[in-house]
Amino acid sequence: MDPTQQFLLFLLVGVAATLSLATNSPVPQRPAGCTPREREALLAFKRGITNDPAGRLASWKRGNHDCCRWRGVQCSNLTGHVLELHLQNNLPEYYSDFEFKVTALVGKITTPLLALEHLEHLDLSNNNLTGPAGRFPGFIGSLRNLIYVNFSGMPLTGMVPPQLGNLTKLQYLDLSRGNGIGMYSTDIQWLTHLPSLRYLDLSNVNLSRISDWPRVMNMNADLRALYLSSCALTSASQSFSHLNFTRLEKLDLSDNDFNQPLASCWFWNLTSLTYLDLIMNILPGQFPDSLGDMKALQVFRFSSNGHSIIMPNLLRNLCNLEILDLGSLSSCNITELLDSLMHCLTKRIRKLYLWDNNITGTLPTGVGKFTSLDTLDLSHNQLTGSVPYEISMLTSLAKIDLSLNNLTGEITEKHLAGLKSLKTIDLSSNQYLKIVVGPEWQPPFRLEVARFGSCQLGPMFPSWLQWMVNIKELDIWSTGITDQLPHWFWTTFSKATDLVISSNNISGSLPANMETMSLERLYLGSNQITGVIPILPPNLTLLEIQNNMLSGSVASKTFGSAPQLGFMDLSSNNIKGHIPGSICELQHLQYLNLANNHLEGEFPQCIGMTELQHFILNNNSLSGKVPSFLKGCKQLKYLDLSQNKFHGRLPSWIGNFSEVQILILNNNSFSGHIPTSITNLAKLARLNLANNNISGVLP
Ligand SMILES: *[C@@H]1O[C@H](CO)[C@@H](O)[C@H](O)[C@H]1NC(C)=O
Ligand SMILES: *[C@@H]1O[C@H](CO)[C@@H](O)[C@H](O)[C@H]1NC(C)=O
Ligand SMILES: *[C@@H]1O[C@H](CO)[C@@H](O)[C@H](O)[C@H]1NC(C)=O
Ligand SMILES: *[C@@H]1O[C@H](CO)[C@@H](O)[C@H](O)[C@H]1NC(C)=O
Ligand SMILES: *[C@@H]1O[C@H](CO)[C@@H](O)[C@H](O)[C@H]1NC(C)=O
Ligand SMILES: *[C@@H]1O[C@H](CO)[C@@H](O)[C@H](O)[C@H]1NC(C)=O
Ligand SMILES: *[C@@H]1O[C@H](CO)[C@@H](O)[C@H](O)[C@H]1NC(C)=O
Ligand SMILES: *[C@@H]1O[C@H](CO)[C@@H](O)[C@H](O)[C@H]1NC(C)=O
Ligand SMILES: *[C@@H]1O[C@H](CO)[C@@H](O)[C@H](O)[C@H]1NC(C)=O
Ligand SMILES: *[C@@H]1O[C@H](CO)[C@@H](O)[C@H](O)[C@H]1NC(C)=O
Ligand SMILES: *[C@@H]1O[C@H](CO)[C@@H](O)[C@H](O)[C@H]1NC(C)=O
Ligand SMILES: *[C@@H]1O[C@H](CO)[C@@H](O)[C@H](O)[C@H]1NC(C)=O
């Protein structure tokens, strides 16, 4: 632009600006704010919310005059009316009750909301605004302008209100519920009044009484996505004079109560489908030929339906498949199946699930052609022979599961060298499979889950595992390792939650202090671990170190650091001395086994510990009376105090254990009569009181 042009432009802009000032611009200005009526309505709505733990509605206050600027509120630029309420509680796909409670709004939806007459978008998902009654507020049906309603993840119960049929502009309706009890409906005719509906999710709404649901849904010619998972639907049969569903793309009918021949389902003609989920039903028989015409399919899930049969040829032309889940068919020929998929999917398919399909024979070398695979699950089949080297070509593979087969031969560096993306490997339960890599090998991957249980890894401890610093779960149960625990073991796996190294010949000791470790479950049974029991990891729930060579006495603080511990087996070691009082801090203990050690003295006088079911102390030198806190353990099933020095009378409350099956008290110094209450133990299967000083008669 030369100077003259610049000047001209300046002049033009100036003139335009002056003009627009002078003529009071016709360009619509943003109104000063929301209308007072709607602001009051929002404030009244907020009063119905009794708890907002994350402060998500902090900006909703009278002082902030313009409610259009409140968090989650969107207004029309033209009129200032509230059009959208985005009050969803953003949670990950799978969340815990705890995570839900930390951010969910609690309370109820009140009628002042109706003053927002122009509301088009209402997203209250993942909150708890159900009120004490837990019901869906039917008056929502009066907000005539609603286009989008999302109540997903609300703990609602009761009937889905038919008043929703008044929302004639509705395009999106999501009433799905994560888990637990949900709503029900006995009549869904109201859905036929929603001509614009494109997206409907009623997952977890009980529709068991509605048999003609496909006919009702068929009235919505614009439907693109229909999710009816876990709806207790009983039938998928329907004949149509005219199939309206020609635009349906996504159909989820998983986890219903269908029990009918696969081919009799109504949906096989829907060539527009890109997503079809049918897992967890009972749909036996042959897949119909029309499956071969569903060429738009990208995701097809069909596992856990029992005894269905697929002709691999049907998949030949489904060239858009990315996820194919065919677990639990009655049988499947892996060679033919891969041949069919090879026709057009080698660069496309990402996830292939073929578990529990009675697959025999060897894994074909052709598997190496599917270079986009990120998940390959062939677990629980009868694969034999060795794993082909071609597996190494799957550079995108993040998860491979070949567990529960009968693979043989060796897995070598050559198999693993190309698997740059691998995060999860499961080769467990292939007892003839050997993993053979050199001591200097550096893997190209960082695993998070590694399961090799009952394969052959030993006799040396596999040194390549030292690079796996991101491990969450390691299973090397019974892998023939006869070696010392390497010096790097506890630091490399300090972030792991599950370590399963039982049934090897591993020697070495535990670190003195495990307080910074993330372990939740530690299985070390049947090895040759020596040393003392250390301060335990804080999140530990399960500890098995039975059949080892632990010695020394237990330090006073040992157990106090792991208050979540529910299962502890320290039996058959050489532990001596007194049981420290810190054991009483294990208030969630259900299983305690200290048998076959050299423990002495009295069991500490604990309070609580009411969840105990197994209390096994036999073959020590423990003394004192039957620990009195056991009186409160109503769920006790198994009590073994035999071969100790316990004395005193058997307490009469022993008859209160309605669940007790095994009561073994022999070889102690118990005295007095057998309490008559013992006859109350209806489930008792074994009783041994031999070699005590007990007198009198058997009640
Ligand atoms: C309203 O204004 C905002 C920003 O001021 C803009 O992002 C949005 O697109 C406008 N909406 C309409 C419907 O004009
Ligand atoms: C409804 O909300 C949930 C959770 O916020 C979200 O996952 C889902 O996609 C929403 N449904 C629709 C139709 O947008
Ligand atoms: C929802 O809130 C109610 C109180 O209004 C409460 O009783 C209920 O336990 C809460 N539900 C969930 C799943 O948090
Ligand atoms: C809304 O729906 C209910 C139930 O279907 C119906 O009785 C009522 O008349 C409808 N209200 C309006 C204003 O249409
Ligand atoms: C659905 O409701 C029926 C009664 O209408 C009931 O028998 C059935 O147990 C319910 N199913 C589920 C999964 O809640
Ligand atoms: C197909 O959809 C249209 C529009 O919703 C509806 O009027 C018609 O009854 C439907 N046809 C069938 C056979 O359900
Ligand atoms: C599917 O299409 C075939 C052939 O076009 C037809 O015979 C059959 O009745 C259709 N099935 C359904 C459920 O519409
Ligand atoms: C597995 O296949 C064999 C023959 O290959 C057959 O005898 C057996 O019944 C099948 N098992 C199941 C569970 O289908
Ligand atoms: C699988 O199919 C191939 C090719 O049709 C055939 O050669 C092979 O014997 C079949 N395998 C089994 C286990 O039936
Ligand atoms: C597994 O393979 C081994 C060695 O080839 C064989 O001896 C064994 O019988 C097979 N086991 C099963 C359950 O097929
Ligand atoms: C442990 O080693 C001994 C010999 O040192 C051997 O007899 C035993 O079978 C081994 N146990 C395991 C589980 O490998
Ligand atoms: C224990 O679990 C809590 C909650 O999951 C977690 O925040 C904490 O980091 C864990 N502690 C360790 C040592 O991993």
Automatic annotation (TrEMBL):
Task: Using the record's annotation, list all stretches that form the Leucine-rich repeat-containing N-terminal plant-type domain.
Answer: 37-76
The primary site where this protein sits is membrane
Q: Which GO terms describe its molecular function?
A: protein serine/threonine kinase activity
| Localization | Cell membrane
**Organism per entry:** Oryza sativa subsp. indica (Rice)
Signal peptide (from-to): 1-22
Keyword annotations of the record = Cell membrane, Glycoprotein, Kinase, Leucine-rich repeat, Membrane, Repeat, Serine/threonine-protein kinase, Signal, Transferase, Transmembrane, Transmembrane helix
As for membrane topology, the entry says: Single-pass type I membrane protein
EC assignment: the record states: 2.7.11.1
Reactions listed under catalytic activity: L-threonyl-[protein] + ATP = O-phospho-L-threonyl-[protein] + ADP + H(+); L-seryl-[protein] + ATP = O-phospho-L-seryl-[protein] + ADP + H(+)
The reply to whether NADP figures as a keyword in the UniProt entry is no
- Under the cellular component aspect of Gene Ontology, which terms does the record hold? plasma membrane
Q: Which SMART domains does its entry note?
A: LRR_TYP
What family does the entry list?
Answer: Belongs to the RLP family.
A Pfam match is LRR_8
Q: What is this protein called?
A: non-specific serine/threonine protein kinase
SUPFAM superfamilies the UniProt entry points to? L domain-like (SSF52058), RNI-like (SSF52047)
